[in-house]
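Hi there, hope your week has been kind to you so far. Thanks so much in advance, here it is:
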Amino acid sequence: MNLALLTLVLPLLNVGWLATPLLVSPTLAQVPPMTVGEVTATAAAAVARGRELWQQGTPEARQEAIAQFQTAIEIYRQLGNKSTQAATSIELAARHYFYGELEPALQYYQVALTLWQDLGKPDEIATTLEYIGDTYSASQKYDLALQSYQQSLQTWQQVGNMPQQARTLYVIGSFYHQQFQDSQKALDYYHQRLQLWQRLGNQAEIAASLKSIGDFYTKISDLPKALEYYNQQLQVWQQVGDLQQQAATHQFIADFYRQQMAAPNQALTSYQQALTLWRQVGDIKAQATNLNRIGDMYLKLNQGQQAISSYQTALSLWKRAGEPSQESVTIAKIGDAHYQMGETGIAASYYEQAFAVNSENTPTPQFSNTATSNEEYYSKSREFWEALGGGFGEAVTRMELAKIERGKGDLTGAIAQMESALEIVENLRTQIADPELRSFYFATVQQYYELYIDILMQLHQQNPTQGYQARALEASESARARSLLEILLEAGADIAASAPPQLVAQEKQIENQLNALAKKQVELATSESPEAAAALETEIKSLLNQLRQVQGQIRESSPHYAAITQAQPLTVKEIQQLLDEDTLLLEYYLGQERSYVWAVSATSINSYELPPRATIEAAAKNFRDAITAPALRMRPKKVAETAFNLTELILTPLAQELQGNQRLLIVSDGALQTIPFSALSVPSLATVSSNRFVSSEGKPSSFIPLMVEHEIVNLPSASTASILRQELRDRPTAPKTIAVFADPVFGGTDDDRLPSNIARNQNRPNTTPVPLQTAARNIGFDGPISRLPYTSNEASQIFRLVPENQRFGALGFAATREKATSPELAQYRIIHFATHGFLLDSNPELSGLVLSLVDAQGSPVDGFLRLPEIYNLKLAADLVVLSACQTGLGKEIEGEGLIGLTRGFMYAGVPQVGVSLWSVDDEATSILMSKFYEGMLEEGLSPPAALRAAQIAIWQQQQWQSPYFWASFLLQGEQLPGREFLPVKSVKHSNK
């Protein structure tokens, strides 16, 4: 039922005061009147129909559902049924909220609040105030949100509802901590919550409150205080007599000692206390887990015999539990203990036993992906390859023997073992037709390369002239981005051209189905039906598996494919041939015990030992947080301090290599992939004392960003640079200059390009469906998709530089997915997207860019340009710029780096991609991009030189000085020298 039908129903009510003339057709005069009960039933039926439509998940059904709810609300209003009107308004508000339509959500919540106040319903008033607070918070109106939460708390206090008071206190405390960074007020509210549960005597909630306070102290790094509250939590469970909770808390405290405080003795004591309790509970798996951890602590304390005893007891329990995989792990731990005690022969025998147990108890594997997450997929693929036994088991054993040889000082023998192991590893890798599974497999064997590189570098220290550091660099190249290297070769070989047509057609059909399901998944991201969402996820995974199988068959049918999978990374000599005299390659490799960086020029190679991975990644995280965190990014001293600290670790050791105005090619690793090298300090200044970080005027006096002296380009590996250059070498230059997609229409209430009469004519609030929303579980957004108004200015500034016949613009409603996938884009050398990007954690291969989600009539359209479609583009562009948020990020797979949008565009034929590392400022980005294009199109600078000049220009402006505004953007990939963008001399004249 819709509002048009409502105008026919209400006048028929047999109630005098409701006899309101509502444009009733004279032909209905003979229809018998309806009773209030019948009309109430009609409203209830409208609500039920609305819920049913909502479950369908399509934008059309959702809009009809909203109309049904509005119909019911209007009937209840006419009937004077305030209670049901309020409840239905809240239901509709919640649906708007979950779709990121915050303004209509707030309006309906306010209507409900007024009705509850009229009815004098304090419980409902307090609950609705919390909803309003959530909505204000999502709108980033934090003061109004806090005011609503406080009013809710006051209402609960007035009615004496202590459990609800406690829960609201926790909400307010978390809000102070997260939004206002006010630790003291947050702590005050957490304690008030604890006191209320103590008055109520609810032991489980008391324990939970104590743990949350402990977690709070952990976050602010007050570890002794955190431990105090964790121990209080333990005391509560002891008073209650809950043995299982006591055991779990002892185990948690033990993990806390081990991970946070690096205190193995205290951890050992707590693990032993947990073990005693697990024995009383009778949980043998928990006992075995604790015994393994106890053994680990004994090993840290160099008490090998005690560790072996603990592991042996755990082993017997795993056998009782029927867990052969855990048996294998525990046997290997016994080998580790013997190895630490110097009993290398015994250790080797245990390693062999471990893999024998694994092989005997595991049937011949058949890989089937029924995983519900990427982490589980990773785990399943690892189990699959470990289950192979045979060759893989030999590789593992040889690796362990290499460790033993290294421990004895026989580095040459260790190298021989590792080369045999790596030959097996590489042979297994080439047998996998599915690139994704090959990537996951490759992630499981990174430890082989790490050990091999480390041994080679130790040999280099002993024999600096024997070429070991070059071999180590070549091993580093072998260990990274191999799947990317292969898919780039695959793109150039046109594998599908020689495949059976039926397989190619099947691939296309599955891709179309996936695209339709991915669209539906986004729309259902906040579905009230977990069953429907789960079923859709299962269907998507099934299709992804089918697609991988078909693509595997296509690859295997190609005569070129075998050569692609056996392609070798570059040698050092081949890498040097890529470099001119003004270019330096820096390749990083982060290891558990120590890390390395190689500095390679056209004529030399040098290497430097760096701190362990954990040390470097912690500094990288602090550096990134200082730049991006709202509370820190405008504090120059904090940014400079963290930049200096990271520079000290990764650049200062090789400071003599860095000459002024060099072009730096950076091949990073781990967390270094998520930080901008451009914002690090010039190494020569990294040792300046901290009291000189900031001048009296508040401006950094000693901090000079690295980009002031160097052009910087990022590469997944040095070998990919060669493939990307090959891609361009024989390809003609595209005939036109640039295509720009900017300022798409997402349909939110903040966009005045949607005429108000559209919403009025369709009997709905002035808003259009937004398929992404605040609570979208699978999308990388913190809130609704808001308009990016400065991107229109960004596009205008670019167009100012290019003659009309050399450019293409798709702005506003015209920025559609259809135009982004059009073959016409192959005519342009540069493609610029100024919009939002998104990352699907559950299925990163379905991530992409957001273009217009509605047409000029306000009707929803599919505006998601996803990775599978990007892979299928045939572009001739030299450069794609993704002027959006976090487009440089992706799912990190060890050994492969970040799997995201960059790879998709490189596969589509683009050698260099400009991306961002965090959510960028709209206005600052518009200015940065304008200067970037001026450098390329007016001054003829290369993209790296133009980006550097633009960043320096922004940095020199006081209001944009923080790296947050300019350092997010970087260039990934490589350009063939000589293909720079020539300046357009007649631009201004031609545009008059």
DSSP finds 40 helices and 16 strands in the chain. The mean pLDDT is 77.
